[in-house]
């Protein structure tokens, strides 16, 4: 695998099968960003030998990546805005007692999907500082949802992204989220 700090695209020998399949995902993002996103998805989704358990991994593993795009921000053209879109279906392990997607599941999807958008933009390895959620409508069991993520800021210490979760069957907004992430402080030396 190529170094995370390298700006050169990885060679064919350095690209895993997951990264190779990621390069065919629609969108204008550079190949090295798509390869980095594939590595991050493998890490977050626990796709490695012997790693079978973890919080909501089945939900995360069902996400389908639809597009990865980057463009200049309208208001600040010297800065870029990344758009990463996922899709999944609301399954029984995602719903509350009322039969619609649980608010905690929506927040989890915002956490995972915005983290991946920030990773595509070159901000992997950050930790959550705050997630703000607004719930608009229920997403019933079986409906298809589209998770649209846009980066807002890509700072040296703090980055942020927003997320909209849409019910694609009924064409309505389910939830919106704002995710603030920060670079972790270095570990204190032990003397």
Defining traits:
alpha+beta; Thiol Ester Dehydrase, Chain A; six-stranded antiparallel β-sheet; 4 helices; disordered N terminus
List the helices and strands and how they pair.
Blueprint: H1 17-22, H2 31-44, H3 57-61, E1 64-72, E2 80-89, H4 103-120, E3 127-135, E4 144-154, E5 158-167, E6 172-182
Annotated CATH homologous superfamily: Hotdog Thioesterase
How much strand?
25-35%
- Pairing-aware structural class of the strands and helices? alpha+beta
DSSP summary: helix tally = 4
Principal-axis shape: globular
Main β-sheet, in a few words?
6 strands, antiparallel
Mean pLDDT: 84
- Give the termini distance in whole angstroms: 34 Å
Order of helices and strands: HHHEEHEEEE
Strand order within the widest sheet? 1-2-4-5-6-3
- In total, the number of domains comes to 1
Q: State the helical fraction.
A: 10-25%
Uncertain runs: 1-15
Under CATH, the topology can be stated as Thiol Ester Dehydrase, Chain A
Total DSSP E strands = 6
The CATH architecture comes to: Roll
Work out the radius of gyration. Answer: 17 Å
In CATH's first tier, which class applies?
A: Alpha Beta
Describe this structure in words.
A hairpin with a 3-residue loop joins strand 4 and strand 5. Residues 1-15 have low confidence and may be disordered. Helix content is 23%, strand content 31%. Strands 1-2-4-5-6-3 form a six-stranded antiparallel beta sheet, with helices on one face. It has a single domain, classed as Thiol Ester Dehydrase, Chain A (Roll). The protein contains four helices and six strands; from the N terminus they run αααββαββββ. The termini are far apart. The chain has 191 residues and is α+β, with helices and mostly antiparallel strands.
């Amino acid at each position: 695998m190529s170094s995370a700090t390298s700006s050169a695209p990885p060679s064919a020998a350095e690209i895993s099968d997951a990264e190779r399949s990621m390069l065919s995902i629609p969108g204008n993002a550079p190949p090295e960003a798509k390869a980095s996103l594939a590595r991050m998805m493998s890490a977050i989704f626990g796709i490695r030998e012997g790693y079978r358990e973890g919080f909501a991994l089945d939900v995360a593993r069902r996400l389908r990546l639809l597009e990865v795009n980057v463009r200049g921000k309208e208001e600040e053209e010297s800065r870029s805005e990344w758009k990463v879109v996922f899709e999944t279906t609301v399954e029984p392990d995602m719903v509350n007692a009322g039969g619609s997607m649980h608010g905690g599941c929506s927040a989890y999807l915002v956490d995972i999907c915005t983290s991946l958008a920030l990773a595509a933009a070159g901000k992997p390895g950050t930790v959550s500082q705050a997630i703000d959620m607004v719930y608009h409508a229920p997403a019933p069991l079986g409906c298809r949802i589209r998770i649209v993520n846009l980066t807002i800021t890509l700072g040296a210490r703090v980055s942020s992204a927003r997320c909209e979760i849409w019910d694609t069957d009924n064409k309505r907004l389910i939830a919106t989220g704002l995710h603030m992430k920060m670079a972790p402080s270095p570990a204190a030396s032990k003397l």
